[in-house]
């Protein structure tokens, strides 16, 4: 289950106490955000340290590598699968020579004002030493910056992982600022490229830009169908080190090229090279990348779903080996029936 249902109680007990089977919380974002949004997750983790039925899983493994020892529970890496939507007999679609961006901006949990500077934010969250503030800023904005800003800040401030887990407002504020900064840098580098934006906040931050269209929202279950009508999807992972958004798998499964930030998981997942155009998150130049790839300059051709990706990156292919590897539990570990 996701973390949000943990807040529900049945009678006098927490939800997870009413299952005799293993219960795994699937973290859809960095654990810092789940801990802040769903405070009861700390109760679940405390229970999981005593009960081997309970565990975490996440589509990204960088946070587990950093924090698992301090969290103290089993924490599995379970990558996203695709959400492709295929109708038998449906004809192929000739996509328009445009890209699409899907996602919101400006509503990050860190609640940083749109025009707040990074030095101003760091001072606001308690980095009072000007020299240390400069070191942190330089590290966060460096061309080779860590994919995970929260870890950068924690390391430079000398925080142990245990301390970091109790500094959520500061770490989330910085992570959210960098997330917005990286996304804005990427889309601004698309100047001159025809792009449609799905999601809120883009018009407010970008204003009127030639060739940019602000289309509105799209439901998650409709993304796969939408992607068939575009030459490519521009993807931003949420400051993850090793793990990509489900939209990457869905786009590739539908045969749509995805332009996405570099991530160590891309090589491991063995997605088709002709469908993935990676760019450096800290120094994006997407218009040049697209020009060199010829993605928007080639003659339009009908696009078919990619059978290889459909089979290799389905949810069945994700969940089956994960369940097979799950440890066998002693009967005494069962919860309330």
> Biggest sheet, open or closed, and with what strands and sense?
6 strands, parallel
User: In the CATH classification, which architecture of the largest domain applies?
Assistant: 3-Layer(aba) Sandwich
Radius of gyration: 21 Å
Strand content of the residues, in percent? 5-15%
What is the residue-mean pLDDT, rounded to a whole number?
Answer: 93
How many helices? The count is 15
Please name the CATH topology of the largest domain: Rossmann fold
The SSE string, one letter per element, is EEEHHEHEEHHHHHEHEHEHEHEHHH
What CATH first level of the largest domain would be assigned? Alpha Beta
At the fourth level of CATH, the homologous superfamily of the largest domain is: Glycogen Phosphorylase B
Number of domains: 2
| Coarse shape | globular
Unreliable stretches covering 5 or more consecutive residues: 332-337
What's the N-to-C terminus distance? 18 Å
The number of E-state strands comes to: 11
Strand order of the largest sheet: 8-7-6-9-10-11
> Which structural class is indicated by helix and strand composition?
alpha/beta
Helix content: 25-40%
Secondary structure: elements and pairs:
Blueprint: E1 9-10, E2 13-14, E3 23-26, H1 31-37, H2 41-48, E4 54-58, H3 62-71, E5 75-77, E6 96-102, H4 118-124, H5 130-141, H6 149-156, H7 161-164, H8 168-188, E7 195-198, H9 202-206, E8 212-216, H10 223-227, E9 230-235, H11 246-253, E10 257-261, H12 265-269, E11 276-279, H13 286-293, H14 307-312, H15 315-325
Parallel strand pairs: 3-4, 4-5, 6-7, 6-9, 7-8, 9-10, 10-11
Antiparallel strand pairs: 1-2
């Amino acid at each position: 289950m996701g973390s949000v249902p943990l807040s529900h109680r049945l009678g006098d007990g927490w939800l997870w106490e009413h299952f005799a089977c293993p219960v795994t919380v699937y973290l859809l974002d960095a654990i810092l955000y789940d801990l802040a949004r769903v405070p009861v997750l700390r109760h679940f983790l405390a229970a999981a340290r005593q009960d081997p039925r309970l565990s975490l899983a996440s589509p990204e493994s960088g946070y587990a590598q950093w924090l698992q020892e301090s969290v103290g529970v089993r924490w599995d890496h379970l990558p996203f699968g695709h959400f492709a939507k295929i109708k038998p007999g449906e004809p192929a679609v000739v996509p328009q020579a445009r890209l699409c961006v899907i996602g919101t901006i400006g509503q990050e949990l860190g609640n940083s004002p749109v025009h707040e500077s990074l030095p101003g934010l760091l001072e606001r969250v308690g980095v009072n030493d000007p020299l240390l503030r400069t070191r942190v800023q330089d590290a966060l904005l460096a061309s080779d910056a860590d994919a995970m800003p929260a870890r950068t800040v924690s390391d430079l401030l000398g925080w142990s992982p245990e301390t970091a887990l109790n500094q959520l407002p500061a770490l989330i504020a910085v992570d959210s600022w960098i997330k917005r900064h990286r996304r804005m840098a990427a889309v601004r580098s698309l100047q001159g490229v025809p792009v449609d934006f799905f999601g809120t906040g883009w018009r407010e931050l970008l204003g009127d830009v030639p060739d940019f269209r602000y289309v509105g929202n799209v439901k998650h279950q409709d993304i796969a169908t939408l992607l068939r009508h575009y030459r490519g999807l521009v993807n931003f992972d949420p400051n993850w080190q090793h793990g990509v958004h489900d939209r990457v798998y869905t786009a590739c499964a539908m045969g749509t090229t995805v332009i996405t930030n570099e991530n160590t998981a891309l090589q491991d997942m063995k997605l088709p090279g002709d469908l993935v155009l990676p760019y450096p998150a800290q120094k994006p130049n997407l218009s040049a990348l697209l020009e060199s790839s010829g993605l928007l300059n080639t003659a339009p051709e009908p696009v078919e779903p990619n059978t290889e990706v459909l089979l290799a990156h389905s949810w069945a292919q994700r969940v089956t080996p994960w369940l097979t590897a799950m440890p066998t539990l002693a009967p005494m570990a069962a919860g309330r029936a």
